Each structure stands twice: as C-alpha cells, then as structure tokens.
Amino acid sequence: MKRLLAALAMITTTAAAQAEEVTTFTLDNGMEVVVIEDHRAPVVVHMVWYKIGSADEPVGASGVAHFFEHLMFKQTDILESGEFSATVAANGGSDNAFTSYDYTAYFQRIAADRLDLMMQMESNRMTNLAITADNIATERNVVLEERNQRTENNPGALAREQFNAAQYQNHRYGVPVIGWKHEMEQLNIDDALAFYDLYYSPNNAVLVVAGDVQPDDVRALAETYYGVIPSEPDLPERIRSQEPPQRAERRITYTDPRVSQPYLIRSYLAPERDPGAQEEAAALVYLAELLGGSPFTSDLGIALQFDTQTALYTGASYNGNSLDTATFSVSVAPATGVKLSEAEAAMDQVIADFIANDIDPARMESIRTQLRASEIYALDDTQGLAQRYGAALSQSLTVADVQAWPDILQSVTEEDIKAVAAKVFNRDQAVTGWVVATQEDAR
Asked: Is the overall model pTM greater than 0.90, yes or no?
C-alpha cells in the first residue's frame, strides 16, 4: 500500500502539471472555447456543446432536443444529407452526438491535421442547416423507433420513466430525454426551426478541442469559422422551474410480465455539483461507494448478499454532474424466496446502521486511494477529458471547478459523509419503486 501511495503521489505531480495545459478564451460573439493539450499522439477531439437539453424544452414539445440532434446530420447549404459523417469517416475519423437533460453535444475524433475541416463543417451546420418537411417526417419516425427499442421494449426503462416522473414534481428532469411518445408524434417543422434558430447559436455553445494542438492555432481556427457567426440577441436566460418542498414519500409498483427478476429502487433528491460548492457532492461519491459499491466491501453488499443472503444484487449510485438537483439511489434485487417487503426492510436497516455507526477509517482510505487513481487514469483519456470539461461548462461549473474536483474528493471526511447522509436520507423527498412481473410478486 505504501508503495502504491508513493507511486500515486509521483503521478499526481505529473497530473497536476497536465491539468494546467488547459487554455480558455471567449470569442467576441460569446462562444466559450476550451483547449486541452495532449501531444502524445497526432489526434484531436473536436466537440461543440450547446447549453440546451431536454430539461430546457418548451412544455408540450418533449423530445425536441434529442430530435434535433438527429436533424443536425441532414443537409446544409453546402453538405448533402449524411455527407458530414461520410466526410469524417473518409478522413479516418469517427463522429457522433448525444443529448442529455442539460446539454446537446456533437463530436469528432480525427487526425490533428484535419481539425480545420471539422471546424469548417461543424460551424456550417451551426447556422446553415436546411431542414425540410421530409427530414422532419423521416427523423421523427427514426426517433419513435428508437424509443420503441430502448424504452417501450424494456420494462426497466419504462419503470425508470415512472420513477423519475414521480421524483420530480415540478422540474423537467421528470420528463424523459427522448420525450413522451404522444408528444414526440406531434413534433413538426415549426418546433424544430424555432428550437434551432434560438438555441443553436455561438453565445449558447462551448467549443472543446483536446489533443495534439496548440492554443494559438485553435484560436485562429475558431475565430475563422465560429467567430464570424453572429450571436443570438434574444437568447433567454436559462431559468428552469424548480422543485417545491417535497412533503410526502411516493411509492410505485410497476408491473410488467417481461420482468424476469423483481427488484426495488429508492431514489432521494440530492445536491448537485455547484460552482465553488462541490463539497457535498464529493461526500455523496463516498457515500455511494460505502453503501453500495463493491458487493465485497460495501455495507449493503456485505449485509445482504453475504451475511444474510437476502439479496442477489445490491447497489447505490450518485451522479452530481447536473445543472439542478440530482438524485441518490439505492437498489436491491432479493434472493429467491425473499419478499420485496423483506428486502426493503433489510435495506432500511443497513441505512439506519450506517447512520448510527462510525465509518471504518480503513475503508475511507481505500476509497480515497481508488478515487485518486481514477482521477489520474482519467488523464489518459483525451476524449473523456473533453467530455468532462464540456459537460461541466454546460452545467454552470467552471474550468477551475473541474480542476479543483480531485482535491475536493481527497479532502472528504467521515463527518462530511455523515452530514450529507442525514440530509439526503429524507423519506419525504424519496420515491420507492418495486418492479415486478405480477401483483403476486409485490409482497
């Protein structure tokens, strides 16, 4: 262990130096730019993040953010439909896009000497997309089929939708990213154009370039291709409906004959990472690991999977990368012959014992070491780093917050974890869900 810690300490110095190879600037039109240097291979990751996700959609038009992600691969004034990705592939690269609650992002991974071409094409579709009625009809069918495959045909996904809708009583995080099916079916060209014209603008975007590049070269290219695009003067302030005080626990039993293994999940509202205030989020990372990380070392795993053999699976999860209030979840799949009510009671006892008892200092040190190693290894993933910075800036964090995060994780104490556990484990702001094949299983 001492040898490992010494090695990690040496690597930490190198990691800190590498973390300083991040350059930021803002174009005159308001577009933020982040350059992450990594000269180990002649490769570059080029990403554009729009600060618009499904939680920003107009009421009644759920799914339009994800729908528009698809439309961005159609024709522009200079590119035919599908030509964007075909050009990336012809140049030996790969590209894709993704939509979340808080952002929509587009990226290419390609040889560094092709960055000029990527910026030319990406900036072109930021402002010159040519949406047609045929595109709307075709891609609407595509996203509806995507929903059929990923959600309608997956009882776990359908259950999660119901749980999220119950968890968030007012916030748009309760609406699925892909959209409600009945609203997706009504999306039209007016919805798409209004969304594009307002939100796909440089002053609502973050450009992240990571890899074998020089900041001055990136600045010159960014000014050439993105800097000439006018900012959107009517871009609205990013204000979202927030959660009211939650005063009663909600319980849901989701029944679907396709469920092969009954299980239960409880999710609680939890603090997210905020600019200059990431300490509670860091403590929740430890709490998730202590309660439901490895089944061999976590409290739920040891108590329910080994000591009593009450469960086949246990887990806890937390992701504080969120613009607004996040969630902390615990889950249990009971062993054969164990009722869900018994599994839930056993889970609650483990949580109560955790709150009442001291945290093992050896476990704390082990998690601390794992997290330190994880943060160091992350520096080897250029695309992962680009995503880390892009997501953070799209969710109100700063470059300084991203670079402070590893040290904040290392500074978490047992007292911090106990305090945030007492705050989060409030049944009035929780949803408990049972997922079963038949009503007989809901016992």
From this structure: yes
pLDDT digits (tens, 9 = 90+) for 8-57: 444 444 444 344 589 999 999 999 999 999 999 999 999 999 999 999 99
Q: How far is Cα 203 from Cα 1, in angstroms, rounded to an integer?
A: 48
392 by Cβ neighbours in 10 Å (0-12 / 13-18 / 19+) ranks as buried
Pull the structure tokens for residue 364. 């704390």
Q: Which of 37, 69, 122, 280 is catalytic?
A: 69
The DSSP letter of residue 386 is H
Domain boundary pick from 192, 225, 258: 225
Cβ contact 359:418 at 8 Å: yes
CATH of the domain at 67: 3.30.830.10
Structural domain includes residue 8: no
In this structure, the dihedral spanned by the alpha carbons of residues 77, 82, 84 and 88, taken in order and rounded to 10 degrees, is -160
User: Both 163 and 59 in a single domain?
Assistant: yes
Give the separation between CA 114 and CA 38, rounded to whole angstroms: 16
69 counts as catalytic: yes
On whether residue 34 sits in a domain, the answer given is: yes
pLDDT tens digits, one per residue of 83-134:
999 999 999 999 999 999 999 999 999 999 999 999 999 999 999 999 999 9
Range(s) of the domain holding residue 319: 250-441
